[in-house]
Amino acid sequence: MFLLQLQSVTPLSIKANHTSPDGISIQNITLTFIPTTLVSGCRVSILIKLNKNTTTLLDGGLNYCNLYKLLSASGLSSAIGFVELTNEWACLGYGLVKCK
């Protein structure tokens, strides 16, 4: 079971917690929206901390999948003008992603 709990929302950030199916691992997820020169556009930066102490970097795409699930659940990925631009350099593990 994928448990994502919203903690706070501001015009420039979203904070949520993701709990693993076994309830042992908790990830603190922070999305920061950075305005761009594109009309109504922004860049999203994400930081995921595991159990509040460790930042995960190479995780087989788990961070990417969590971000994608959050964007999908919010409806943002279906919004007019939404474009996803990422690669292995910007998102470690992106090349290994197999989101379920």
How would you describe what is shown here?
With 100 residues, the protein is mainly beta. The protein has one domain (3-96). Helices cover 13% and strands 36% of the residues. It contains 1 helix and 5 strands, in the order βββββα. It has one helix at residues 62-74; strands spanning 3-10, 13-19, 26-35, 42-50, 54-55. Strands 1-2-3-4-5 form a 5-stranded antiparallel sheet, with helices on one face. The mean pLDDT is 76.
Concise synopsis of the structure shown:
With 100 residues, this protein is mainly beta.
Give the helices and strands, then pairings:
Elements: E1 3-10, E2 13-19, E3 26-35, E4 42-50, E5 54-55, H1 62-74
Antiparallel strand pairs: 1-2, 2-3, 3-4, 4-5
Mean pLDDT: 76
| Beta-strand share of residues | 35-45%
Give the proportion of residues in helices: 10-25%
Strand order of the largest sheet: 1-2-3-4-5
Report low-confidence residues grouped into runs of 5 or more.
none
> Which structural class do you get from the secondary structure elements?
mainly beta
> Radius of gyration in whole Å, from Cα?
14 Å
The sequence of SSEs as H and E is: EEEEEH
Number of helices: 1
What count of structural domains? Answer: 1
Q: Could you tell me the number of beta strands?
A: 5
Described by strand count, sense and barrel closure, the largest sheet is: 5 strands, antiparallel
Q: How far apart are the termini?
A: 11 Å
Shape: globular
